[in-house]
# Entry
Amino acid sequence: MINAAVFASGEGTNAENLFKFFENDTRIKIKLVVTNKDTAGIIARAEKYKKNVQIISRESLENYTSQFIEFLKLEKIDLIILAGFLLKLPPQFVTAFPNRIINIHPSLLPKYGGKGMYGNKIHGAVLRNKETESGITIHLVNEEYDEGQVILQVRCEVLEEDTIETLAQKIQKLEHEHFPKVIERFL
# Structure
């Protein structure tokens, strides 16, 4: 069985979707949730599914990287799933978990990737630039923001009448549909 840790910074809808999808799967156990915000919605969602939650600040992640990696290894974590985690993982994570960190990004990378590009900031940029399509990218994590090997991209049409909210809904629907399936194939 693969033990996974889900890292998330926000509401945690993708994480909760993964909890439900893999609830009775004998190949994977989502053992741990990591967040960098003690007010994040993911905490309540994780507790609802009886997941252990670890809160780690940006400073702790940067200053105690080796200790945190050691903690994950003691927990026998095999796979890290980034589901809306807004901090960049230090390079030691990529070394410690090679090809075992998966991220979901709400754009068609390489467009709208990198530091500061997340959520509604991306959707707003897509609309301002009058893009005709957007989508999601699921990729392996490397040392650079949003530049790891692409596993899957799924596109959706951007309509003239779309707003940040309607585009966000389209993207979230794609995330919920495809992220669990990609992880399942990855197993």
In short: The mean pLDDT is 96. The chain has two domains: 1-98, 104-187. Helices lie at 13-21, 42-48, 58-63, 65-74, 91-96, 119-128, 164-186. The longest strand covers residues 28-35.
